[in-house]
Amino acid sequence: MSQIRSNSEAEIHPILANRWSPRAFAADKPVGRETLLACMEAARWAPSCFGDEPWRFIVCDKASDAASWEKLLAILAPKNQEWAKNTPVLLLVCASTQFRSGKPNRWGEYDSGQAAISFCLQAEALGLASHQMGGFDSDAARKTFAIPNDATPMAVIALGYQAAAAKLDEGFQSIELAERKRQPIGSCFFAGTWKKPIA
Amino acid sequence: MSQIRSNSEAEIHPILANRWSPRAFAADKPVGRETLLACMEAARWAPSCFGDEPWRFIVCDKASDAASWEKLLAILAPKNQEWAKNTPVLLLVCASTQFRSGKPNRWGEYDSGQAAISFCLQAEALGLASHQMGGFDSDAARKTFAIPNDATPMAVIALGYQAAAAKLDEGFQSIELAERKRQPIGSCFFAGTWKKPIA
Known about the structure:
The first copy, chain A, has one domain: NADH Oxidase. The first copy, chain A, contains seven helices and five strands. The first copy, chain A, has helices at residues 14-18, 33-44, 66-74, 78-84, 108-125, 138-144, 170-177; strands at residues 55-61, 89-96, 129-133, 151-160, 189-191.
């Protein structure tokens, strides 16, 4: 049920091409422990500056720990809660602001993004769907999950098996079925100097 | 020539498992235009907050623009220059600090990390190797490539075809052949609350 990429410029690997962020998830299909572990393992092998691994994932699996799952669902933006309530696993991704040595790490967020997408790509490879959200209450996340000052809540990942768009509330259906688009490649990829489009 | 992952916990997709960051690159094997375009395309389809695509890549391809490639090589940390001089393509990855609307974007670096690893995974899928570096002079990068204030230089990616470790200067050979390791999974992945190891 991957969507059409409307302005694709080149063939890319299927797990990169087919990964997208749906809203329709099957509430009745939990994610097995081994599957979840494989997604974490993919995140774990992401590269990081000085090999510091500055990402921290809090896994809230409704099947094994409904209380933490409910807590994480509750701090999502209301519009996200409307569809995320059907995802069996929610994860809070945090970025460490310091290296393990205690020195500031200016790559903490960058590297946490690398780990998060690696998680999502492994999910895609295993036939699951994922959807990262910036729309959540970061302060509430910090309080609810006791995130220390040297970590920054960055995203919530919804993970599960995709369902048909028809399962969604009507307001979400047109978004779910819309073509995927990106900026023209020359808007973000430059040849040798700033702003010179590569293509 | 992928390395052994010494403390792997689960099987993951080969392009995630085999991607790593070597130092030995074949100086005499340029990267074709189509190949480079496919790697950019993979980065382009990374997810981003509000679909803003806050990453900016400056591509410095020695084969087509030796001058910009030389400039980027020159601002790498001296230790990185020693091996990166053999990589046919160097890319400077920058993160926008603002959404296209002009409002601050706190996910610019996180999302740029997602695009960068997507680039590297597509390279892996096509039989190339990549190596991201935080070790470069960010201020010099800003001046040399006219990076505006609303973008942050985050990493330089070296891209090319891998060569045998024996091609490296002796000091690099043991690092190149060392086992890949990660923190125990419970060090970065928590169950339902901060610091409770998931496994």
